[in-house]
């Protein structure tokens, strides 16, 4: 993880794209990419974050959600969330809305 990647996710609001649909099974969330049929399975931690993204939110809001629900230090949570967001962005599942300043 580079400083640049951390800064990227810290500067805006993360939101889901419309490229994926998801549903819950007994112990995980399953996601399917609409245009390709590709599947992903999310563990319980990733599921908490995916559920939080039903409404767009900031990296800080995601960190708060994770540290409330799991015994993890804020810095560890932040790093784990950034890695997940990087993966989900690569898959086209999330995007970052960055506010433009004049």
Short description:
With about 100 residues, this protein is α+β, with helices and mostly antiparallel strands. About 45% of the residues lie in helices and about 25% in strands. It has four helices and six strands, in the order H-E-E-E-E-H-E-H-H-E.
Question: Could you explain the architecture of this structure?
Answer:
The chain has 102 residues and is of the alpha+beta class. It has one domain (3-92). Helices cover 44% and strands 25% of the residues. The strands form 2 sheets. It has a 3-stranded antiparallel β-sheet. The chain has a 3-stranded antiparallel β-sheet with strand order 2-3-4. α2 (44-52) crosses α3 (59-69) and α3 (59-69) crosses α4 (74-90). The longest helix is centred in the last third of the chain and has 17 residues, at 74-90. The protein is globular. The chain starts with a helix and ends with a strand.
With strands numbered from the N-terminus, the spatial order across the biggest sheet is 5-1-6
Distance between the terminal alpha carbons, to the nearest Å? 29 Å
**How many whole angstroms does the radius of gyration measure?**
14 Å
* Discrete helix count: 4
Classify the secondary structure makeup into a structural class: alpha+beta
Which regions have little confidence, pLDDT < 50, spanning 5+ residues?
none
Shape: globular
Quick one: how many beta strands? 6
Helix share of residues? 40-55%
Largest β sheet strand count, sense and barrel closure: 3 strands, antiparallel
SSE order, as H and E?
HEEEEHEHHE
């Amino acid at each position: 993880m580079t400083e640049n990647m951390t800064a990227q996710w810290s500067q805006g609001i993360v939101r889901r794209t419309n490229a994926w649909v998801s549903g819950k099974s007994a112990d995980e969330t399953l996601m399917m990419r609409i245009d390709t049929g590709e599947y992903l399975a999310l563990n319980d931690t990733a599921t908490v974050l995916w559920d939080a993204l039903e409404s767009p939110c900031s990296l800080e809001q995601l960190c708060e959600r994770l540290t409330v629900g799991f015994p993890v230090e804020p810095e560890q949570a932040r790093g784990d969330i950034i890695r997940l967001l990087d993966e989900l962005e690569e898959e086209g599942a999330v995007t970052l809305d960055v506010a433009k300043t004049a």
